[in-house]
Design brief:
about 35% helix; about 70 residues; alpha+beta; 3 strands; single chain; about 15% strand
């Protein structure tokens, strides 16, 4: 049986925890910080746990990270 392929874009953007939750960086922090509020910039720092419906989609892209 051939190996399943991992989506290269997904392995660069997501990290799976030991319990199977998917960590993702905050959206909207690439550019245009001058128009964002300080509260937004603070709250969007680091990574956060992805929502359950989106996690089901991402899991298919990362077959060996379960």
């Amino acid at each position: 049986m051939p190996k399943m392929k991992t989506k290269s874009a997904a392995k660069k953007r997501f990290k799976v925890t030991g319990t199977g939750k998917v960590l993702v960086a905050a959206a909207g922090k690439r550019h245009g910080m001058i128009k964002r509020s300080n509260k937004f910039i603070r709250d969007a720092r680091g990574t956060m746990v992805m929502s359950e419906p989106d996690t089901k989609i991402v899991r298919k892209f990362l077959p060996y990270d379960l």
